[in-house]
Every structure is written in C-alpha cells, then in structure tokens.
Prior knowledge:
It is built from eight helices and eleven strands. It is α/β, with parallel strands linked by helices. The chain folds into two domains: 12-111, Rossmann fold (3-Layer(aba) Sandwich); 122-153 and 183-279, Dihydrodipicolinate Reductase, domain 2, CATH 3.30.360.10. The strands form two sheets. A six-stranded mixed sheet has the order 7-8-9-6-10-11, covered by helices on one side. A hairpin with a 3-residue loop joins strand 10 (266-272) and strand 11 (276-279). The two termini are 32 Å apart.
Amino acid sequence: MSQIHGANEHIRAAIIGSGGRGQYLTANFKELGVEMAGVCDVYEPNLQKGLKAASTGAKAYDNYKRVLEDPAIDVVIVATPDHWHAQMVIDAVEAGKDVYVEKPMAHKIDDGFRVQVGMQRRSFDLFQEGKQLMDRVGEVRLVNAWWLNNQKSLRQTPLAGKLDWAQWLGPAPHHAMDPDRFFNWYYYWDYSGGLMVGQAAHVIDAIHWFMNSTYPVAVTCAGGRVNLAGAEIPETTSMAIEYPENYLAVFTVGYKAMHYAPANDQMKQFHGSKARLDMG
C-alpha cells in the first residue's frame, strides 16, 4: 500500500478495464464503502456500462494515464487483459496510487516485478476450515486437482462502438484490429496464458497454502491440440509439479469435457495416509 487510510477515511477509486470483470469488481468495492469515482476503458460500450455500475457522478477516462494523473483518485483497480497488468501496476505505484490488480500480476516472466498478491481462497471461510483439517489426513504425497467444463466456441461478437485498438494492444505485438482477439483475448498468446494460467493461479495457490510449500523443484506442462476454432491456446492442458516437501501435485484443465454447474467444475484432492480431503 502506498498510503495508509484511517478507518473512517473516505476512499475514492477508479476501475481500469470496465468489462464484465471490471463491473463485478466495481460492485464489490462499492459494497465495501469505496466511492467508485472513475471509470477507464478504451472500448466505448464497456466505458458506458462501467459508468452505470460506478458511483453517481463518476468521471470517464479513455486513457489510464489520465486516471493516474488525477489527485482525487486514491486507488486504482486493474481489470484489463493480462498483457497490461504489469505496466499499469508499475505506473500506478509510481504515481502514488494504491492498487488492486486481477491475477495474474504479470503476463510474462520478463515483465519482472514484485508485488504482494492476495488470493480469493485464502479469505474464503470454507477453505480456511479446510486448512484446519490438514493435520488429520496424515502424510500427503500426492495432490490431484482439476477444473473441467465445456466451452463450445469462442465468442462471435461484433464491435458495437468506438475502440482505441492501438491503446488496447499497448505492449503487445502489433496486429490489425480484430474483434475476435478483442473479445477472446484469453485464448491468444500475445495477451494471456489461457485457462491454465487463469485457473492455476487459484488452484496452485490453494495447494501451496494447504501444504505449507515453498517453491517447486520442477514443473512440467503439456497441452493438447487446440479444439476451439480460432484460438491459439489449448483449452485442454495438464501440469505436474514436484515439491521439495516430498509430494507431487497434478492439475488438469479441460474445457472440452461435459458441462458442469459452476459449483461442481473443480476439485483439489489431498491424498493423505489417513484420509483424503476434497476441496471443491
């Protein structure tokens, strides 16, 4: 945190990237009593939706640097595609803002910077209770985890308003404007690591936490063929991790499996010598 706010001090925040996730976070921060005083997006329809979700009188921005220049904004929330996360966080911190950034904190290792990252499951009461049960399962040498569902295709959505494509690309390689890339950025290497990166951020962190782990000794990953027309990143992948604490973790993502309800599409199984703990 760049500043320490008193318990009763009014906090004014701006969302950078007001698509679906940005609008969700806007609602959550408002519930916490934060005034969502600014909305920034390079796609006009998302900007307008973000303004409707924000606090009354919120200011619109079409460039995140204008947000950082505004002394009335205390906090910025970064909910852009992954390839922008690192640079926006660095710029925001250098501008003296506090920052909440969606995972992952960076798209590539050479984005290279260090910030403290909080993960959802660590503040979820179900997982906190599960963590307390780990001393009852015995020695764990294997953890199996998966996240399965069915995605039929990429989104086929036409642009419905003004888009500043050059600003959206930012640090990514130049590419002609492409609505498919804009609406499905999660499936293109220039902007994301795909479902494995997005879901492993949750799952592997929970495994680290439950197992009191440090750093892996080795990580291997395999991906199948791409089965979503137009995508670059496979939707079916598996990762095996070896830990110095003497256990293996295997995490599989498969989005060409059967359709699951959101509450049932993921699992972490800790195979202990006395019992198995399942965390959904």
